[in-house]
Specification:
Radius of gyration: 39 Å
Distance between the termini: 52 Å
CATH class of the domain at 114-337: Mainly Alpha
Structural class: alpha/beta
Number of strands: 16
Helix content: 55-70%
CATH topology of the domain at 114-337: Growth Hormone, Chain: A
Strand content: 5-15%
CATH superfamily of the domain at 114-337: MFS general substrate transporter like domains
CATH architecture of the domain at 114-337: Up-down Bundle
Low-confidence stretches: 1-59, 332-349
Amino acid sequence: GWDRLQGATPPPFPSPLEGGEYTYTQDGGGQDGYPYQTDYPQQDDDAASDATEGADEDDQMYEGEYQGIPHPDEIKMARRAARLEAKRKARLAEQQEEEESLPEQYESIMEDCGHGRFQWMLFFVLGLALMADGVDGFVVGFVLPSAEKDMCISNADKGLLGLLVYVAMMVGALVWGGLCDKMGRRKCLIYVLTIDLVFSFLSCFAQGYGFFLFLRICSGFGIGGSIPIVYTYFTEFLQMDKRGEHLSWLCMFWMLGGLYASFTAWGIIPHYGWGFAIGTQFQIHSWRVFILVCLFPALAALIGVVFMPESPRFLLEVRVQLKPPEILKQVTNIKTPQTEEDEFIEIQSDTGTAFQRWTVRKMTMLQQVMANVMSLSAPELRLQGLFLVIVWFCMAFSYHGLGVWFPDMIKYMQYEEYESKVKVFHRERVERFHFNFSLVNQIHREGEYIHDKFANIEIKSVKFEDSLFENCYFEDVRSTNTFFENCTFKNTIFYNTDLWQEKFKDCRLENTTFLHPKKGCHLNFQEENDIVIYMVSFLGSLAVLPGNILSALFMDKIGRIRIIGGSMLASSACTFLLLLSFSQGAVICWQCLFYAVSVAAWNGLEVISVELYPSSKRGTAFGILNGICKFAAILASFIFAVFIGITKIIPIFLAFAALVCGGLVALKLPETREKILS
């Protein structure tokens, strides 16, 4: 019936001017111009009249419904719906075509902009932000040997401080990476640097361990988001043929951060007297001055970012309609407008209080960020995301694990060398003698000291065992790692010393007096050779310079995948040389070689991580990858530190296996050298 209805055409109406009346046809014609089928059986008019007698007009049924023929009104509605659907599909196709052409259009605009003064200004500003992150990675480790004495920090508390700061940086990378895809790169970077500056500055004046720990955690949460934002931000101002090279040059600023921190720590912290006093109780010692000096890169970066524009790619992503000439202007003058979605949220919550509106905005943004995170598991992103996670984890595990192992191994060798030079005195008898010189690295067993005086001296790494002190006088004595075990003291006076009761183990005190003991922490601290540690960190940071330069020059020539895979496999070969590290000099040499070779893999990873993802997910994905990097670093620092002084084989094997695994997986990643950012 539908086919006949579609195929039949009604005959033309006779014109009243020509014939005067309508006529009926017997073959296909019908009343009112509708056709009828000639082979229908004859209908009895009386029967039809009887059948419909007494029926209301509303109850009448369209006769064609019995034969499955649609009503003419249904036909009109179907045709109207078909036309609307066709228009909708045409609009979607046009919109999709525009979106597909937008990346190429943007790339053409970036090529027209070229790489000029603006890109170099942005390069240095974002480089300072990256440098601030590099500095913060060294600050806690450098200040702890001095801060532990001022704030009486135990070894367990030191480990907790380092752990929680790194956890805060990991959380910061995850949070700020997701937020920069919704709030904007520039805006989030300003927040990140401000948080780091404020809480780092306050930590300089913290007197207690708890307050210092809280402030450093907040600072770590802020600066932890700088790396995902910086690389995402700078990438979106670069044209394709210069992207890899200039992102690699940007990586050098992290190295400069390490050099800056090592050099300033080397020059400031050992001079404990460099500082000033506020009142009578509050002392600003050299390690606090060092923290203040380390704020300069973050402060300079914050001032610079304030004058930088928002990324045009981000503005296009949030539906700001920009024409190509307008995008060119964004390079020098841009402001982030409010998006339609933000306006909808404001309108929706107009009747609430200010707090309710703020809550709605933040909850909506949180939902958007979580939806963005979940979208990373889409089929087209799932496999490459899994490969990137494996490579990032393997690289961070080996790099940061060995980064902990190198200085700890040097400290252990120093300790062994120090122990080998210890002087042992057995059953010595010293009577009426004035000790006015320092005692260093000695063991005194079963000695007798009668009427002796110990005045204005330093006792460092000295142990007295089973000895007798009778009628002795200790005055103005400073001690480090010094203990008295199973000793007897008779008629002895301790005046203005730091020989507290904790340093006397199983000792018998007879008529012994402690007068005016020195104030300070009663914990025992190991004296460390800080100068060597600063030098090791400085050389390790400097060693990455050749690798940075080479990776920048060849990143766009041989591709990201070859650089990542080749660097990781070459670094795995370097780990075997660590088996030959029998001296401090050898460890330092192999450390520098490993850093120089492995830095190319880091540069390639950071470049490919921002190129594989679209603008709407770039910051979120990089934040997750950087968070995984921090997690691997935390895990490796615990595992590698356990084997210090036990064996070198297990840490070296773990680093080798991780590098080989990551290098082979990296070869499966897609090459992005000629990819236009979406």
